[in-house]
Specification:
Elements: E1 4-8, H1 10-14, H2 24-37, E2 41-45, H3 53-64, E3 72-78, H4 81-90, E4 96-102, H5 105-110, H6 118-135, E5 139-145, H7 152-164, E6 169-174, H8 181-195, E7 199-203, H9 210-223, E8 228-232, H10 246-255, H11 274-285, H12 306-314, H13 349-359, H14 368-385, H15 391-399, H16 401-407
Parallel strand pairs: 1-2, 1-8, 2-3, 3-4, 4-5, 5-6, 6-7, 7-8
The structure holds zinc ion.
Zinc ion binds at residues 13, 202, 204, 238-239.
């Protein structure tokens, strides 16, 4: 039976969201957490955007070093030969790409405004796919932007042309969050049957149905005989009302009535890392986790009313569908309540050695010179993120100072 894979797009859709952003070190840590959790692919950025180049290269180097393994790191570009060429020029080691182009009548008339007709859309896409293979891509997904408002027959023509040119998957983008679970099930099943290639499902929450639509679309693809790839973001952060939340999607796939044990993940997701990941993303984006967020919200396992509290104390299964331990919750959080020395952009070596000595025993064995170099990098990281670095960021910089240096390097106007 076909399987479901998670393709997280936080580092692409999440960071392109209005008013939000992440530093390159924060993006890197997210990739590390996603990898440890078992996520199949991270759409880790924009290979045609100059300020991303060093970050993307550094993360590919971490993959070669085995730090970001087995997760696949995929770039997002527009489906044009020009974008493919720029991507390979700026990030020569990139091997996984998703090529995106609008397919709906609305976008063809409303966005391209006569510059592109339907046949141009297919022509540009296949040319870009060919160029990606020629440049050394190992996997190519093709994104139909606004697929949910595209005529099904045109999507079949588009998908078959992509398949003929070797594309591995079709991304069905519900760009405006227009679908409902019943319609997207049908569309994804239809496309899986007609195209005979795996279907990626990309949903937004404008009508509050991103998670429901994602799992329904995946069910459709599988019932149509193909693997499904669900696009998620951490804490559902994404354009406008957001994307399908990673933790909620995994919970839905593994715990819900119709999915549990029937529609399976292709790679096991370690949910016990969910809590740490969600907290880190919340801190890095500077957005609180809603109190009622599935699994990781402050109220997800809180009970106040007499009947519920009594019931859950007798047997948690009376009022809880899954246990908090499964999500990595339950450890009391360590908050310093006494004297605190914080690493910042104006820190000195003595305070910094104190912090690192507490966190990493091996740091005590480093030379003064190495310690100073790491402190310098931490200062720069703080300049970029404008907030105290979390322990994992400090340890990352101490472990991989050369990589950190590249992540912190920004050289415009070259
Ligand atoms: Zn999107």
């Amino acid at each position: 039976m076909p399987r479901i894979y998670i393709l997280d797009v936080t580092n692409r859709d999440g960071v392109q969201t209005a008013k939000l952003g992440l530093s390159k070190i924060e993006k890197t840590l997210l990739n590390i957490y996603l990898n440890k959790m078992g996520v199949f692919q991270s759409e880790f950025g924009f290979p045609t955007t100059k300020h991303e180049s060093l970050y993307l290269q550094a993360n590919l180097e971490l993959a070669e070093m085995g730090v970001l393994k087995p997760i696949r790191l995929g770039g997002w570009i527009r489906a044009t030969v020009g974008d493919v060429e720029t991507a390979f020029k700026l990030v020569p080691n990139i091997r996984h790409l998703n090529l995106s182009i609008s397919t709906s009548e609305q976008m063809i008339t409303g966005k391209f405004q006569g510059r592109k007709k339907k046949h141009d859309v297919i022509h540009d896409m296949v040319e870009a796919v060919d160029a990606a293979w020629a440049k050394g891509a190992e996997s190519v997904g093709v994104n139909a932007e606004d697929a949910s408002r595209t005529a099904p027959e045109f999507l079949v023509d588009f998908g078959l042309a992509a398949k003929e040119h070797g594309a591995n998957r079709l991304r069905y983008c519900d760009t405006l969050g227009y679908e409902d679970p019943f319609t997207i099930y049908k569309s994804c099943r239809f496309l899986a049957e007609k195209l005979g290639i795996p279907i990626e499902i990309h949903c937004h929450g404008d009508l509050g149905m991103a998670v429901a639509n994602s799992v329904a679309g995946a069910k459709g693809a599988i019932d149509g005989g193909q693997d499904a790839y669900i696009n998620t973001t951490v804490n559902g952060i994404g354009e406008r009302a957001g994307n399908a939340d990673l933790v909620a999607v995994v919970l839905a796939l593994t715990k819900s009535k119709g999915f549990a044990g029937k529609y399976r993940l292709g790679r096991k997701i370690d949910l016990s890392r969910a809590w740490k990941l969600a907290k880190f993303a919340s801190y890095a984006f500077d957005i609180p986790i809603p109190i009622n967020q599935p699994g990781v919200g402050a109220n997800a396992f809180s009970h106040a009313s007499g009947i519920h509290a009594d019931g859950v104390l007798k047997d948690p299964e009376n009022y809880e569908l899954y246990g908090y331990e499964e999500l990595g919750r339950g450890e009391p959080e360590f908050v310093e309540t006494g004297r605190e020395i914080i690493a910042g952009q104006y820190s000195g070596i003595s305070g910094f050695s104190h912090i690192m000595g507490k966190k990493d025993v091996s740091f005590r064995r480093r030379s003064q010179e190495q310690a100073r170099e790491i402190l310098e990098l931490v200062r720069y990281a703080n300049v970029e993120s404008h907030k105290p670095l979390v322990e994992d960021e400090l340890l990352f910089i101490a472990r991989y100072p050369k990589i950190a240096k590249r992540l912190l390097t920004l050289t415009p106007l070259e």
